[in-house]
Specification:
The chain has 418 residues and is α/β, with parallel strands linked by helices. The chain is built from 13 helices and 21 strands. The chain has a domain of 188 residues: D-Amino Acid Oxidase, subunit A, domain 2 (D-Amino Acid Oxidase, Chain A, domain 2). Helices cover 31% and strands 26% of the residues. The strands form four sheets. Strands 4, 6, 7, 8, 15, 16, 17, 18 and 19 form a nine-stranded mixed beta sheet that branches. It holds the Pfam family DAO.
């Protein structure tokens, strides 16, 4: 715009990705509006495990993983469930997931994610600034727990791949685990400590705090649902909402989590995204204390010490965006947790289900549109929404400002499965 006025940026989605993008764009001097379909506090950004998992660079689709899937599906305490009625819709994602487990593709994705997450902590600093939110960030590292040496040996390729891409970790024996986490029981046979890991003690307070700071710095926030995108001069220029608002923009950022591809398809950008529905329970009086965020390797769940209690979460359920939650998954996770934490008090917990927007190769979409130079995508972070929030926000602001960046965005492009 040559008249000296600020360019208008519209961001669809006020989860951690949308808020970080909006905050960075405000710092660049744009007029930024975020529109969100749900009240703050309801989304995946608030109820998650809170991790800044800067070491989680290896994709989920590893070579040979498919051999474990049938056993997981048949195990009532297993980490994976699939509602059979959803299978037809799930097959395209599953096909690309299996293709992505090719070793060459896994190595390429890991290398890209290592660069992406290198600044996971540093890129939050400008956003936390003077907000008072720094106290929420705990950088204590994490411990991955194994039931046996056989379990740790099975993950040898995972750890080798991590190490080759610059991840620091240290193997722990049982004595060393108990020195760090005395509350763990006999199931904790051996483990791996990762120092470059942290978590926010209240993800919801982080999201609410960033939202308040965004508005304090001049950003606009609207609660409404975008129904359609209208064109002007052959470019997307207006978003129409259910509430009847016409939101004009110079640039559009779609960061709507699990709902992002519904909007991208309207603009001609198809991408196969699915929703890993994750469950957790937050226990206000767990009667055990953890000093680190603890991950349980074989059973695929985590325990995070938070301001409001101990959060036990994990599991992957494929059932689509709209299906009702199955809170039996929460009970399953608590049953597993008690095997590792024998003194755990599982009473009075708050159950939650969130929709993780997941790509087949575990690499998010951070990309311009194929067709419109004023449309940009930021979605598909899966388990790494909080982890990659600030990095993505900085990348989106660099993309719109056309600044050079050390991050090669080619592996994150929306066209990579074409």
């Amino acid at each position: 715009m040559g008249d000296g006025t600020k360019k208008k940026i519209l961001i669809i989605g006020s989860g951690i990705i949308g808020l970080c993008s909006g905050s960075y764009l405000l710092k660049d001097g744009y007029d930024v509006t975020i529109v969100e379909r749900e009240p703050l506090g309801d989304g995946a950004s608030c109820g998650n495990a809170g991790a800044i998992a800067a070491t989680e660079i290896v994709p989920f689709a590893l070579p040979g993983l498919w051999k474990d899937v049938p056993g997981w599906l048949l195990d009532p305490l297993g980490p994976l469930s699939l509602r059979l009625s959803y299978l037809p819709q799930f097959l395209p994602w599953l096909y690309l997931f299996l293709k992505s487990s090719n070793q060459k593709k896994v190595e390429k994705s890991t290398k890209a994610m290592a660069v992406f997450l290198k600044n996971a902590f540093d890129d939050y600093r400008p956003l936390l600034g003077n907000t008072g939110l720094e106290s929420l960030l705990k950088k204590e590292g994490s411990i991955m727990i194994y039931k046996s040496e056989k379990g740790r040996t099975k993950d040898r390729y995972f750890w080798d791949l991590s190490q080759r891409n610059g991840i620091e970790f240290h193997h722990l024996n049982r004595r060393e685990i108990l020195e760090r986490e005395p509350a763990l029981g006999e199931q904790a046979h051996c483990g791996v400590y990762q120092p470059n890991w942290g978590h926010f003690a209240s993800p919801c307070d982080l999201v609410m705090g960033l939202s308040n700071e965004f508005q304090k710095q001049g950003g606009n926030q609207i609660f409404d649902e975008v129904e359609s995108i209208e064109f002007k001069d052959n470019k997307p220029r207006i978003a129409r909402t259910k509430g009847g608002q016409a939101l004009e923009f110079d640039h559009l950022v779609i960061a709507a989590g699990a709902w992002s591809t519904r909007l991208s398809k309207k603009l001609g950008d198809n991408f196969i995204l699915d929703t890993e529905r994750g469950y957790n329970t937050t226990l206000p009086t767990p009667d055990v204390e953890l000093n680190n965020m603890v991950l349980f390797a074989e059973d695929k769940f985590v325990a995070t010490p938070m301001n409001m209690g101990l959060r036990i979460g994990g599991a992957v359920e494929f059932a689509g965006v709209e299906a009702k939650p199955n809170y039996d998954r929460c009970e399953t996770l608590l049953t597993l947790a008690k095997e590792y934490l024998p003194n755990l008090n599982g009473k009075d917990g708050t159950k939650w289900m969130g929709r993780r927007p997941s790509t087949p190769d575990s690499v998010p979409v951070i990309s311009p549109s194929r067709h419109h130079d004023n449309v940009h995508y930021a979605f598909g972070h899966g388990h790494l929404g909080i982890t990659g929030g600030a990095v993505t926000g900085r990348a989106i602001s660099d993309m719109i400002a056309k600044r050079p960046t050390e991050l090669d965005l080619a592996p994150f492009h929306i066209n990579r499965f074409d």
